[in-house]
Amino acid sequence: MSAVSVTCPPAKVGFDPGRLARIDRYFAAGTDDGRWPGWLLLISRRGEIAHLSAHGSRDIAAGLPVEQDTLFRIYSMSKPVTSVAVMTLYEEGRLLLTDPVAKYLPEFADMRVYESGPAAAPSTRPATEPIRVWHLLTHTAGLTYEFYRQSVVDEMYRAAGFDGPYPTGLDLAGCVERWAALPLLFEPGSQWNYSVATDVLGRLIEVISGLPLDRFLAERIFEPLGMHETGFEPTDPQRMATLYGQAPEGRLVPIPPPPLQPTLLSGGHGLISTAGDYHRFTQMLLRGGELEGARVLSPRTVAYMTRNHLPGGVDLEEFGQRVFSEISNGGTGFGLGFAVVQDAAKQKDLGTEGEYSWGGAAGTAFWVDPAEELTVIFLSQCIPSSVQPIFGQLRPLVYQALVD
Length: 404
Fold this sequence. Notes:
CATH topology of the largest domain: Beta-lactamase
Distance between the termini: 35 Å
Largest sheet: 8 strands, antiparallel
CATH superfamily of the largest domain: DD-peptidase/beta-lactamase superfamily
Order of helices and strands: HEEEEHEEHHHHHEEEHEEHHEEHEEEH
Number of helices: 12
Helix content: 25-40%
Strand order of the largest sheet: 3-2-1-16-15-14-13-12
CATH architecture of the largest domain: 3-Layer(aba) Sandwich
Structural class: alpha+beta
Strand content: 15-25%
C-alpha cells in the first residue's frame, strides 16, 4: 500500500496555512454542490509534502470516502510516463528523435495526408515528411483522436472502430496498425494536435525493447522509483475510485470504466496510480531524473524534455488545432510529453515560466515548477474533465498561498 503523509509544516517551505485552507474550501464546495464526487490534493515544495487533503467520495453509493491511498485512473497523465520511458531508450542510443517511425513500425511507411471529401471516399496525397519519433513526442505527427468530432479524419477514426472504448479484443499492436492505415490530419511537423501519438510510442517501446509495455514501464520507472501501486491493473480493486459522468441535469452518475484487466496496454491513457506514487514520479522529474539513488534520466534529458519544442518558439494557440483546453493556450508551448509555460502573462494564469504539466480526462492534473521547487497533484474521477476544469482554479489558489 502506498503511504503518503505531510512531512513538514507548510510555513517551513513558504506556505501560509490560512491561505492553503482556501484551496480546500473551494474544492470542498465543488464536491458538496455535485461538481466532483471526491478529490485528493498533494502539494510539495523543496522535497517536502506541505499539504495533503481529501474530500468527498470514491464511491458515492457505497459511502466510501476518498483516502490517501485511493487508486485513480489517471488517463492522460500516463503520457508523461510513457514519454519518459521512450527517452530512456534514447539515452541508450537505441533510437534517435529524428528516426522515421517506420524504421521500427513499417506500417507507418508511405503515409498519406487527408485533403478533401467525405470519410467514406476521402481524397488524400502522399505525405512529404515521414512521421519521426520527435513528432510523436510533441503531438505534431498528424494523428488525432476520434472524440474531437471536428474533422473528417476524426470521423474516419470512429468508422475504424475507435468510438468511445477501443475495439474489444484489439491489442496495442492491432490498434497501431489500424491507425497507420488512416490518413493524417496534416503534414507531420506542420501543426500540433493532441492525439493517439503516445499510444504509438508505447508500441515503439515494445518493438525496440522486446518487452510488453507494462513490463518495460515497471522495470524502468515504477520499480526503481518505488511506484508499487502504478500499472495497467489495480493493485487493490477495493480502493479504486468509481468513475462518474454528469447526467444532462448535472447529477453525477456512475459510468462504465475501462476494464480492470485491459487487452490494450495504452501508454496514452491506461495507467492507474495513487497520489503517493505519482508524487514520486514528479519528484524524480524535479530532481533532474533521480530519486533516492534511482536515476531514470539524466538532468540534461529532463531539461530538454521540458522546454518548448514547437518550431520557432511558438505557443499552442498559434501552432495547435482548435481542440479542447481548460485554460488559454497562449504562452504555453509543448515539450517532449509535457505542456510548458513560456509566458505566464500571455497565458493569463498565475504561474511560473518553465513550469511543465499535464492532466487527465477524468479530472486529474499535475504540474512541476522547477523555479519554485514545487509539485502539485490533483486527483478526481469524473469524466470528461471539461465539466470540472482544474488548472484555471487550482493554479492561482496554490500560488496565492506561497508567500516567501
